[in-house]
């Protein structure tokens, strides 16, 4: 039996990168997925690669707009009849030192990561409460644990997601809803591979396993947290960083 057979998942920021990797692993385990992202064309292409009408739906969604997030989770119920899993993955970066960072740089990152995660958690929980079950996965980062120079906005947002996750887990546990977070480290994506080679090498040198992670490895942890294999896990933050920043 597939681990997510018959389940329906909504994933934000799912047209590429970690969001797409998570969606791909969910589909492989039997789930139907609704992909939310800003670029509808690329999101539609991603949904088609995942099976299209047979189990993948694309929806344009700006996670900073609560009404659009509500429409996103509503699309899952309308199309597939239920909502079992919510993955709040959408994110952006506006990296620059604090001295040079503008208020817009700060606000945009906080809005997408932290407010977007709150919007997704709140919208999904409203549906899951009715069924007295469900699981919500939020994407934090090791940057939220240790802080990174040039990322006061991103590090603050990712640390905030940890607090949000734990508070929501306490609020929703008695409703049968589990809320957990994943904190990736250095994962091989188009964004990280654009790093200058010396910087990439220095980051890898800090990792006990001696390599960067692959998006599929985040997807595997997401499957664990979304499935009954983690039925007694809530309020947890699982670090997936090869041992970096232990």
Automatic annotation (TrEMBL):
One function term, GO molecular function aspect: oxidoreductase activity, acting on the CH-OH group of donors, NAD or NADP as acceptor
Ketoreductase domain location: 7-185
Protease keyword on record: no
Single Gene Ontology BP annotation: fatty acid elongation
Entry keyword set: Oxidoreductase
SMART domains in UniProt: PKS_KR
Xref: Pfam families: adh_short_C2
Domain of life: Bacteria
Keyword Disulfide bond: no
Family per record: Belongs to the short-chain dehydrogenases/reductases (SDR) family.
Protein's recorded name: Beta-ketoacyl-ACP reductase
Organism of derivation: Mycobacterium palustre
């Amino acid at each position: 039996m597939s681990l997510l057979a018959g389940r329906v998942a909504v994933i934000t920021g799912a047209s590429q990168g970690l969001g797409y990797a998570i969606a791909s692993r969910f589909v492989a385990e039997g789930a139907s997925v609704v992909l939310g992202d800003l670029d509808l064309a690329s999101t539609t292409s991603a949904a088609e690669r995942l099976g299209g009408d047979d189990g993948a739906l694309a929806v344009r969604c700006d996670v900073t707009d609560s009404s659009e997030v509500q429409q996103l989770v509503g699309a899952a119920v309308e199309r597939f009849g239920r909502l079992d899993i919510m993955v709040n993955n959408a994110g952006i970066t506006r990296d620059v030192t604090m001295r040079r960072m503008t208020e817009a740089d700060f606000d945009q990152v906080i809005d997408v990561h932290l407010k977007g995660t709150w919007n997704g958690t709140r919208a999904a929980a409203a549906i899951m409460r009715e069924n007295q079950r469900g699981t919500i996965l939020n994407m934090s980062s090791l940057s939220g644990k240790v802080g990174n120079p040039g990322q006061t906005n991103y590090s603050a947002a990712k640390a905030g997601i940890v607090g949000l996750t734990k508070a929501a887990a306490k609020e929703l546990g008695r409703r049968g809803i589990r809320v957990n977070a994943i904190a990736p480290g250095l994962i091989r994506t188009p964004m990280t591979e654009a790093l200058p080679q010396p910087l990439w090498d220095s980051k890898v040198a800090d990792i006990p396993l001696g390599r960067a992670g692959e998006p599929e490895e985040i997807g595997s942890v997401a499957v664990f947290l979304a499935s009954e294999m983690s039925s007694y896990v809530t309020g947890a933050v699982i670090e997936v960083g090869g041992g970096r920043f232990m």
